[in-house]
Amino acid sequence: MDWLAQHRAVVDCYKKEVMIESSGESRVVFVGDRQVVPICVISAVEARRLMLEGCEAYLAHVIDTKKVNPTLEEIPVVRDFPEVFPDDLPVELLELKKQLEELLEKGFIQPSTSPWGAPVLFVKKKDGSMRLCVDYRQLNRVTVKNKYSLPRIDDLLDQLKGATTFSKIDLRSGYWQLRIAEKDIPKTAFRTRYGHYEFLVMPFGLTNAPAAFMALMNRTFQEYLDRFVIVFIDDILVYSKNREEHEQHLRIVLQILKEKELYAKLSKCEFWVNQVFFLACDICGGYVVYTDASKQGLGCVLMQNGKVIAYASRQLRPHESNYPTHDLELAAIVHALKIWRHYLYGEKFQIFTDHKSLKYILTQKELNLRQRRWIELLKDYDCTIDFHPGKANVVADALSRKSSSTLANLESHNHTLLLEMRSMNTTLEVDQVARLLAALQLKPDFVDQIKEAQTRDPFLLRMLERMKQGKKPNFSIRADGVIANGERVCAPDVDGLREEILREAHNAPYAMHPGTVKMYQNLRPYYWWQTMKKDVAEFVAKCMTCQQVKAEHQAPAEWKWEKITMDFVVGLPRTLRKHDAIWVIVDRLTKSAHFLPIRQGDSLDKLAELYVAEIVRLHGVPVSIVSDRDPRFTSRFWEVCKGR
After folding, report:
1. Among 116, 376, 529, 601, fewest CB within 10 Å belongs to which?
2. Residues contacting 570, CB < 8 A, separation 6+
């Protein structure tokens, strides 16, 4: 359309003409008459020939001319006052107004004129609803910490010995059932778009809230603690040796709650159960947490007085691999706090990370929703985050990365050190962290043994001659005199050295009998010979231990398509028929397979119809089917198949 406007095109619908001003004063008139000049489609070759002969060609297209509103930064003067034009969040503002009205109606907050004022933010709950949170980080910084001790996890577990019947009671918004002292009410003030308010009850996020509520619960159940009641903040566990005793114990606890006007949430409670999950509590403090993250996983170490208490690591979930480095490092900290909550909750401790910017995360103003949610978790703990260089943070760094080193990869790179240790009967302690090996007997003459054997290997002697002629650039002689292919030592086929290397990489106690692929991957970066892959496969196949331990214990199928396996491949690009997944069904005997294109959102009825039409029609009904716990493989799916 811009091109037509530039050339002042005039469209006459009645005459079926389009007049376009060409260069100079000439005009071009296009006459449209389907009866006289029918549409003629020509090939690209024909069009090129006509253009070479001097014919004019025009390429017309229609573009979208939607009006684009200017951004704040593009408007002079206005861009100097961004505070006047805030970004509205209608959903959050609506939720804020709703929750403020509820808190006012219940008498939990009141309008305030306090000089204090903490900001508010929203955190999304697991059910999708929004939780109103007040950022009390500045208030917590100047608060005198309450040193009220929390119960030890060891003591709690000892009390449960012999108990068979349990009931767990979770108080409804437990903190809000405790009033704030009159003089401290102004300190809880928070500011919103709809006014300035302060809490009359104890809000979430205060650093002393857990200790204060724990003291209240201990006073309430003082008479029955260590007998049949365990209390941890707002969670109450009633335990008994039999159901008769439990009836009496449960009645006592509920009566106390009634008298003290403490209210519980029925949906979060469990009664008369034989097994219950109950949040444990803390042990002694003085903890230090080291964390690290990589593109493979998260790693963390819990230490106390310079000694390791626990290790933890996990692989990244698929969506987490897209996180930026800053969020990954913060995720490692959150992972440590969640799994070691019973150690760290209520204790002052340090967190060391090799990501320097996390040191200021608690004072950072601009946070995304994910970071907001994690900061709310951090505020429950009395912790400080400090920087620890990555080179020094070796333990957590190793846990976050997959290690590929084995003893078969061990070799000496320092010939001088090797000569100095030649006369020693040296024992090295390996892997202080995991204690995988008790002791390793170092053989300093192994390199010399390889070097001497290489002089008697016909193939390597030929390679040595060709190296001297410059015909084998990949081969070289290292400083210690060993022939190498790139960085890999050439293992000669002399004196059984290759068999010794294979035996060391497979049969040694620390090697754990790897399979063919794993063993080859372990050896390949360090050793080279022409038939290495074949020799590794033959060695693993002849290993008696592997044949006994890793043997297939299931009876083989007696006929094709008698036993099948199935799974879904999802996340594929959408085809013209809107297929974005593949249903893979494999026969366990013949390994033949069907690849059925489906849509990821197909119903169970559609899948059942496809299964009957493509599998049962051709191969009949199988005896057994192996699949994962995909929600589509439910009892309803098989009922639909049976009905067809």
Report:
1. 601
2. 580, 581, 600
